[in-house]
Every structure is written in C-alpha cells, then in structure tokens.
Amino acid sequence: MERADVIILGGGLVGLTLAIALDQYGLSSIVIDPADPSATLARGFDGRASAVSITSWRMLETIGVGAHLEGKGCPIGSIRVNEGLAPGGLSFEPDADEGPLGIMFENRQLREALRQSVLAAPNVTLMMPARPAHSERTAGGVEVRLQDGRTVSGALLIGAEGRQSPTRDAAGIRLARWSYDHTAMISTVNHAHPHGNIAYEIFYPAGPFAILPLLPAEDGLNRSAIVWTVKGSEAPAMLGLPERAYAAEIEKRMGGFLGQVTLCSPRSSYPLGFHHAAKITAERLALVGDAAHGIHPIAGQGLNLGFRDAAALVEVLVEGARIGLDAGDAQLLARYERWRSLDTMMVAASTDGLTRLFGIPGRTASLVRRIGLGAVARIAPLKQRFMDEARGQSGELPRLLRGVAV
Hints:
This protein is of the alpha+beta class. The chain has a domain at 2-72 and 107-177 and 273-360 and 397-402: FAD/NAD(P)-binding domain, CATH 3.50.50. The protein has helices spanning 13-24, 37-40, 54-62, 107-119, 166-170, 235-239, 243-254, 302-322, 330-357, 363-378, 380-391, and strands spanning 2-9, 29-32, 49-53, 74-76, 78-83, 90-92, 102-106, 124-127, 132-138, 141-146, 151-159, 175-191, 198-204, 207-214, 222-231, 261-263, 268-277, 281-282, 285-287, 293-294. The longest helix has 28 residues, at 330-357.
C-alpha cells in the first residue's frame, strides 16, 4: 500500500498547485484524478482564461511554477467598469510603481506549467487517470481504495474535485447553494485595435460582459477572452448563431471600440451558480477551491480564492509538521477553518451582492448604479479597497501569497 502525508482528490489547477507547494517543504502527496492528462492538455480541451492576481502570481513564482509561465501571460494594467455603453464609469489604474492588477493566462498554459512542475516534484505521486471507489477516514488516518483495486493511505484527505465534490457530499457537509439563471458564454476573439492591457467589465440588463486582455497570437493579431453572461433561456439561441453573426453580436456589445471582431476559438458555456460550504474541514478532511466555494465570475476571483486556500493550508500543514504534528491533526484543521472561513464568506457575499445589484432592471436601478460607480471613483480609500481586492491583497495573507517562503 502506497502512503503519503496527504491524499489529494482532484488534479486540477488548485489541487496540483497544492501538491507542488507541499513538495517544496518535504510533505508528500498522492494526487488522484479520473481525467487523462493527454486530454486535459490538448489545445481544444478548455478555451477559458483566468485572471491570476498578483498575490497568486507571487505564490506560483515562489513554488517554481512561475518559471514555466514567464512571458506567456498578459498583464492587466487597468480595469474599466461601465453600466452599458453609457459615458462615465469607473477606471482602476494603479500607480506605475505598483505593477499590474493581475495577469491573464489561458487555462491551458496554467495546466501545462503545473504539469511540468509536478512531474519534477519528488514528493508527489500522480495517479491520473485513476478513480477513487471508496475512502475511509478514521482517528488513525485516511485510506482510499481505487476502482482498479489499488489502495493508498495518508494522514489527511483533501477534496479538490470542484463544484460537484463527491468527497464533500460524502462527508455530509451542508451547502448554501442557488442558481443565478445565467449562463456564461466563453470565447476568444481577434480584434482590429489593441486592447492596451485593459480589462473591461460592461454591465447589461441580461448580465455582465467581460473583455479580458490576452497576448497576441503567433500570427500577431490582437486577442481578448470574452466572458458573456446571458439569461439561461437565451444561451442556446446565442450559441447557435453562425460564427460571423456571433462575432457581430460581440462587436455590438463592445460598442465597436476594439474594431472588427472575429472568433479565434470554439465557443463554450456553463451555467452560473453560487455555493458555499458550511464547513471546510471534518475529521482528517480539508476542502479547497470550488469544493469549498463557488462564486459568480463577475469579479474574476474564483481561481484566486482556491489559490488562497492552498497557500493557507500549506502554511498550516508545514508549521504543524515542524512541531511534530501529522497533517490530519485536528488543531491544524481548526486553524485552517478559522483562517479561510471569513475571507471566503466575505468575497462570496460581496460577489453575490454585485451580481444582484447589477441584475436589477429599469432606468432607476441603472441611474443608482452609475451614481455608485461615480462615488467609488471619487472616494480614494474605497477605490483603493477595490484595487486591493483585485490584486488579492486584502485580509491576512499566507506567506506564499506575499512571495515569502513558509
């Protein structure tokens, strides 16, 4: 029977980051995931892109993943928020010496960099593809039996399987959960005019429309990722449009300021919802990432919340190991629970509030939103708070998110 300090169920972006970070400090892990890496690393597997906050980037650099991503991400120099195409709005532009607000990476690039790093990590055992059949947690440890008959054991089980986490459900952890009746339509487009490293969030009655800057493709054409939110009932018709018609609709919602638009990736979509676990720990169990919380992409913080979970859990486990505690010790899990619960709830609540605020129809609501955006623009401390949130610099930051070794 193979044994490690922790068993991570889920080899996505957060699960692999956690394993790599633990490896840096001599803690061993077994990562189990049913996905075949040859499929998940294929160019057409996932056309999404993610905004990696500056604090998350510091962690990736500190654990060695950043070396595989150098030069592949597009810095976000500023963020502009508008109520439709009305004049005014709000612009977040940091001072020149503060650096970018974040960095846009294609998810495919993040997966490739994590794969390269994890294959070089001596304390990580990858079982991919492999599917867990049964897991058992007792006071003495954790045991997972795979469908192929193999069994592995450890001191702590980590659920990192995403929104539909079977580990969370099997532990009986309750969720606050609801649907927004929205669908996010994802695509990558070429456009005639440069984006200037600006990310745009344009709020329409049907939902937010985000334009996220990417580096030019190999052909040198300007590129951006589009996250277009529409009512769930409207998505099938929109996604069924011919490519040229779909690109024309995108161009119209941009107001034409980036010029002619053409699609350069397949379209994809997913329904939007909210969930938040009542607890993120149980006996010899910890949840990270979307297994613990799922939010609307309105602020682009979903992946960064998962990275914050990973950084906090690593710090707790490494410090515990240094004083002789095993990874599943109840004191360590209680500290992780306290550390992450408030932060995730605050981000989740604010994101949900924004979603509902900008979803209220009517001229009066639109006027109130424009007044609110103007107020934020004029009140420097409030504007700075929003920029700190975008950078991931709010709350008690784990050392890895500060770029400091644990």
